[in-house]
Amino acid sequence: MSELRDLSRPTTPSTAVQDLMARETAARQASVPPAQELAEQAGADAAARQHLAEVITELSPQIVALSRDIHAHPEVGYTEHHAVAAVAGVLRQHGIEPDEAVFGMDTALRAQVGPQEGVGTIAILAEFDALPGIGHGCGHNVMCANSVGAFLALAELERRQPGTLPGRVILQTTPAEESDTAKERLAVAGMLDGVDAAIQTHSYAHDVVDQPWLGVRRIRAVFTGVPAHAASQPFMGRNALDAATLALTGIGLLRQQITPWDRLHAVMVDGGQVANIIPERTELSMFVRSKYAATLKDLVGRVEDVLRGAALMTGTGVEIITADYSNEMPVRANGPLLESWTRSQRARGRDPLAADVLPEQVAAGTDFGNVSQRVPGIHPLIKVTQDGDVALHTREMTTAAGSPTGDAAAVDGAYGLAAVALDWLSDADLREAVRANFEASGGVVDVEHFWDE
Fold first, then answer.
1. Residue 425 CB neighbours (<10 A)
2. Whole-angstrom Cα distance, residue 114 to residue 109?
3. Mean pLDDT of the 275-286 span
4. Least confident of 55-69, 158-172, 347-361, 406-420
5. Phi, psi of 333 (to 5 degrees)
6. In 10 A of CB 271, how many CB atoms?
7. Residue 264: what are its φ and ψ, rounded to 5°?
8. Do the domains at 33-213+329-441 and 219-322 have one common CATH topology?
9. How far, in Å, CA of 128 to CA of 74, rounded?
10. Which residues fall in a compositionally biased region of kind Low complexity (predicted)?
11. What's the CA gap between 182 and 440, in Å, rounded?
12. Beta strand pairing call for 263-270 and 281-290
């Protein structure tokens, strides 16, 4: 007979799933072909890449210092004032005067190097917001150091040998990835005007070329009922809490009929005030996620049908509230740019896993998806941990992002982004391949009006 557990405490989740996925990853790694890398003759020549590596080595103390500084001063979305000042400070140390508070955002900074009328423009995006309560549990400090370090290295190459950059490189800080969809707001305001490609990294527990990033639609549902005395005249009420409960139940039942790459999660923000009054108002906050833009739109429609059905069953009203802009779109990774990234990381002693190695069930969302639907882009993952079982958005990831392994990732990722940009700028055939891959995967999506269609 089993002993009764202590009901004052939650049970401890089993690690069986993580253990099984780790074994599955190892098995796949042995059977899936390695990630493809750019041919030696493509992109920038070997001498240029070697010069870049030397510059990165010189810059590495500043890259690590920036990562550590941002890690030590975690700031949530739109309050990244210390971080943006740190970025501006290191740019000015190198004689680069950035434009601050661009596109109407206090912590959106922009700098550029190279000719505006050259072969094209590639943007390096930088996130630096933290998570409330746990700090940099998503490793944005490392990601920011990757981007800033890459930009500084390219600027230094151009300073030492004018004409090294035949096109323009933009550094753009993008606030509030965790709490908002700031890249969408920035894109609508003009961040990507004249930009031909965009790149950035993401911290992780593995080096991975590409991993699914789900699209996200945030929904609020407000149910309005009729209040009544819950004891003497409950029949005169229309229960908004019943509507919210039915909606949650309907969403739970809908999960059986969705694809493995879909996610539905919700919380009740308002469930009424007191038990002896039929609740007049309740509110749900929901995230609807899917791997593809088309399946995301379909799933959102099904969820909204559940919400309307709950209102119909209870005689309540419902208002479905969504943002006046698109939330996160799925990421579309560009194949030729990823080949350039893979080559760069193997040069640093890393070997990024191919796209199909990690289990697809481990997937989150990012507003870089909104960028990748507009211009060719990549969002590869770089390992910041000692072990491979550390999850994002945990205190363990926070520790790793400020550790020596996080420092190494800051430097290696800076070289990687700079090498990708240099490859793209140096090779017309590569630029054409990048554009062709983007068009073959769907071309430019009108993200701003995606939900109006």
1. 26
2. 17
3. 97
4. 347-361
5. -85, 140
6. 14
7. -130, 125
8. no
9. 8
10. 35-44
11. 27
12. antiparallel
Residue with tokens 């070329």: 209
User: For residue 113, how many C-alpha atoms fall within 13 Å in the half-sphere facing its CB?
Assistant: 28
β-pair type (202-204, 263-270): unpaired
How wide is the angle at C-alpha 40 spanned by C-alphas 28 and 119, nearest 5°?
A: 110
Q: State the fold for domain 33-213+329-441.
A: Aminopeptidase (3.40.630)
Query: Does residue 1 have a pLDDT over 70?
Result: no
**DSSP H or E stretch at residue 53:** helix 46-72
The pLDDT assigned to 2 comes to 60
Summarize pLDDT for 316-339 with one digit per residue, the tens.
999 999 988 889 999 999 999 999
Question: What is the residue-wise DSSP string for 233-254?
Answer: -GGG-B-HHHHHHHHHHHHHHH
d(CA 116, CA 104): 23
Q: How far apart are CA 154 and CA 168, in angstroms?
A: 10
Give the pair of three-digit tokens for residue 378: 């990549």
CA distance linking residue 432 with residue 418, whole number of Å: 19
Domain chopping of the chain, boundaries:
33-213+329-441, 219-322
**Ranges of H-type helices in 288-427:** 293-314, 335-347, 368-372, 395-401, 404-426
Q: In what order do the strands lie in the sheet with 110-113?
A: 110-113, 168-173, 121-126, 197-199, 377-378
Assigned token pair, 320: 């479905």
